[in-house]
Amino acid sequence: MSRSSQVSAVLAQGGDIPAPHIEYDQIGPLLLVLGIAVAGVLVEAFVGRTWRYYAQVPLAFLGLAGAFAWTIVLGVHDEPHHVAAEGALGVDGPTLFLQGTILVLALVSLLLIAERGGSVVGGGHFAAQASALPGSEAEQRSAAAGITQTEVFPLMMFAVGGMLMFPASNDLLTMFVALEVMSLPLYLLCGLARRRRLLSQEAAVKYFLLGAFSSAFFLYGAALLYGYAGSVRLADISAEISKDAGSETLLLAGVALLSVGLLFKLGAVPFHMWKPDVYQGAPTPITALMASCTLVAAFGAILRVYYVGFETLKWDWEPIMWGVAILTMVIGAVIAITQTDLKRMLAYSSIAHAGFLLTAVVATSRDGLSSALFYLAAYGFTTVGAFAVITMVRDAGGEAAHLSRWAGLGKRSPVVAGTFAFFLLAFAGIPLTSGFTGKFAVFKAAVQADATPLVIVGVISSAIAAFFYVRVIVVMFFSEPEADGPTVVAGPATAAAVALGLTATVVLGVLPQPILDLAGHATTHMFVR
């Protein structure tokens, strides 16, 4: 008997409602991150403005590091295959791997968010006063006073908390709550750029409006699936599909609408239009956070929904997923060729990579799941490193993200240009980089699942994508630098983020087996139901 049935029976008999049983040790990492977020809000309320930054940064770092250590303990000292919080959350190998990946990438992104050195002294990457109109006297006074934006730290922690909950959600209502906890802080963070304020606020509004539409689709799909199965638990929905006892119209409509909400967060075609504008307008550290952590969380939720809830419906949704994957790979790679802004180019690159990842969903096998987990970790580190490099190349107007401004960067700063070139080669999937290992693993799983035509499209799309990656490298190393070209300035935190991203990209390309084995071990029991 489900808990809702038990509660109904108790109420009918006039008894007391039993207290829910919460396994606090199993969901400790999530609770720790959300607790630190609440503590960050209290810091904003009670600590003086001068000391807030010095309180928020260590608090956020300790929270993320502590949650990561707790995740490791759960994975090492226990066989993770539990349902927690009355069945609302799944604690299993894939979930812990995804949560660990999110926490590590969030720590690296936090280095960028916390940067106050180099050429961004005082205000960092964020507006001094978010409520001030762009270019107004109030904004000028705030910047001159050296006010720093510290609200970004609790907002980031709330977003990370939602990201941790999203792939662990074992029912659709919990998943919807996680989606909103993850998304709402990101809507705010996208509008806080210190430079190009109007573009940043426009990105935030677009992201909010389109995100609200996608959330409505998700919630409507969940309602239809509840009407079909009488439950929002993924395992119960799967059981009802196996019985084939409900209305097929409700089922298929619910699956379609739910998929729209999930694919929007992933940025898959045709639900991708928000991504280039938001990536370009948001503060680059927030773009790095979204391009890495949000992608991992969204794809983890997709894996759980399709592997647990809709696995028995594979023959119905698989053709649609083929089409979405093909369109996402091809359109992402082709449109990226026309981009002249590096952040927009990496946005379309992210869209193409989402298509590569969707081939693992089509595989619906243990190999497909483990290869997707490795791909997410490898791509996340490379992405954070690439955006960190973009924050280092600056001119009088801020970040010099236009491709023409990077002409001759290899002569001005060969180390920075060489590092960025290596990240681009990893995106292209060149051997001895993490990108090659990730693509090979995902494509191999798809071939084993008889999806060879999808792999052929993926290989062709990778070849197309290599063109615009190589174009950037040519501009950096084979063009003459401009007389008023940008300068390369990096604070210590940004340099550390670049070093961590570069190290992970190299190690996961040259010695990938330990992480591949870890991902394989995480999928021993697949997702808990």
Automatic annotation (TrEMBL):
Localization (cell): Cell membrane; Endomembrane system; Membrane
One of the protein's GO biological processes: ATP synthesis coupled electron transport
Main location: membrane
EC number: 7.1.1.-
Cell inner membrane found in the keyword field: no
One cellular component term from this protein's GO annotations in UniProt: plasma membrane
Transmembrane segments: 27-47, 59-76, 96-114, 205-229, 249-274, 286-307, 319-338, 345-366, 372-393, 414-434, 454-478, 490-511
Assigned keywords, A-Z: Cell membrane, Membrane, NAD, Oxidoreductase, Quinone, Translocase, Transmembrane, Transmembrane helix, Transport
Molecular function as annotated in GO: NADH dehydrogenase (quinone) (non-electrogenic) activity; NADH dehydrogenase (ubiquinone) activity; quinone binding
Membrane topology: Multi-pass membrane protein
Reactions accelerated catalytically: a quinone + NADH + 5 H(+)(in) = a quinol + NAD(+) + 4 H(+)(out)
Database matches in InterPro entries: NADH-Q_OxRdtase_suN/2, ND/Mrp_TM
Domain NADH:quinone oxidoreductase/Mrp antiporter transmembrane: 169-464
Family classification: Belongs to the complex I subunit 2 family.
Subunit details: NDH-1 is composed of 14 different subunits. Subunits NuoA, H, J, K, L, M, N constitute the membrane sector of the complex.
PANTHER family: NADH DEHYDROGENASE
Function: NDH-1 shuttles electrons from NADH, via FMN and iron-sulfur (Fe-S) centers, to quinones in the respiratory chain. The immediate electron acceptor for the enzyme in this species is believed to be a menaquinone. Couples the redox reaction to proton translocation (for every two electrons transferred, four hydrogen ions are translocated across the cytoplasmic membrane), and thus conserves the redox energy in a proton gradient.
The protein's name: NADH-quinone oxidoreductase subunit N
Organism listed in the record: Actinomadura litoris
Gene: nuoN
